[in-house]
Amino acid sequence: MLASLQITSQQNPLIFTDLDGTLLDHDDYSFAAAQVMLNKLAQRKIPVIPNTSKTRAEVFKLRQAMALQGPFIVENGAAVYMPTDFLPEQAADTQEIDGYWCKTFAPPRSQWIDLLDALQAQYGDLFRHFAAMSIEQVMAATGLNAADAQLAKQREFGEPLEWLGTATQKISFIKTLQELGANPVEGGRFMHLKGDTDKGLAMQWLIEQCQQQLPEHNWVSIALGDGQNDVSMLQMADYPVRIVSPVNPLPVLNNNKPVITSTLSGPAGWAECLESLLFS
């Protein structure tokens, strides 16, 4: 573990967090083990900013359950949503959507659905993507209930797919996708088909807005994640935190920053690491 951050009125942490397998338990999606820490962060007015592959509809529901009130990033960096009162002014190149300034970085989902449809003849039996899956199939693949599976299907930018073929076939499939302009990344359960966006770029944009509009604060970024699609976010953070996963290897980082790794998995590991960083 690293030494604790010394939080002062001039030092403002921004906590960027993956959800599935990090703040949410991999098996049952519970965040109960992190509830005490979420309460402590709320009392200190430290923003917890979901940075996730989930949809805007899914994050809305989770933020309400967790009583989070700050910004959030959806669909692997495809868009940032910032409450209109989070910063003094509207950020450039954003539009207002339901009380949030929205910055988009990705083309619409339809582009990737069309691409996958074009690959059906070559790879059709080897994958299933969300737009073509029934609610029951999404429930079986994710463990979500029917209502939450419906929210998961309301994607706006990227397209998750469930790989059904071999590892060798997957390598060929990924190469084909990349040649066609897609940027596939592996998440905790699915491969995510998306444009040239990632969690790190969206996180950096939001940090820059805070620095530009409130330069008197010393902003410090903490990022927590458990999967390879979290690497860009972890590498860009001042304090990267890897959460042990029961199903996936730890994300591999390619920089020389000290890295914190939890001893516990999921929300328990999330709370463990933030306790050490911020409150020990």
TrEMBL record:
<dbReference type="GO" id="GO:0005829">
    <property type="term" value="C:cytosol"/>
</dbReference>
<dbReference type="InterPro" id="IPR006379">
    <property type="entry name" value="HAD-SF_hydro_IIB"/>
</dbReference>
<dbReference type="GO" id="GO:0051479">
    <property type="term" value="P:mannosylglycerate biosynthetic process"/>
</dbReference>
<keyword id="KW-0479">Metal-binding</keyword>
<dbReference type="Pfam" id="PF08282">
    <property type="entry name" value="Hydrolase_3"/>
</dbReference>
<dbReference type="InterPro" id="IPR036412">
    <property type="entry name" value="HAD-like_sf"/>
</dbReference>
<dbReference type="GO" id="GO:0000287">
    <property type="term" value="F:magnesium ion binding"/>
</dbReference>
<keyword id="KW-0460">Magnesium</keyword>
<dbReference type="InterPro" id="IPR023214">
    <property type="entry name" value="HAD_sf"/>
</dbReference>
<keyword id="KW-0378">Hydrolase</keyword>
<dbReference type="GO" id="GO:0050531">
    <property type="term" value="F:mannosyl-3-phosphoglycerate phosphatase activity"/>
</dbReference>
<protein>
    <submittedName>
        <fullName>Mannosyl-3-phosphoglycerate phosphatase</fullName>
    </submittedName>
</protein>
<dbReference type="InterPro" id="IPR006381">
    <property type="entry name" value="HAD-SF-IIB-MPGP"/>
</dbReference>
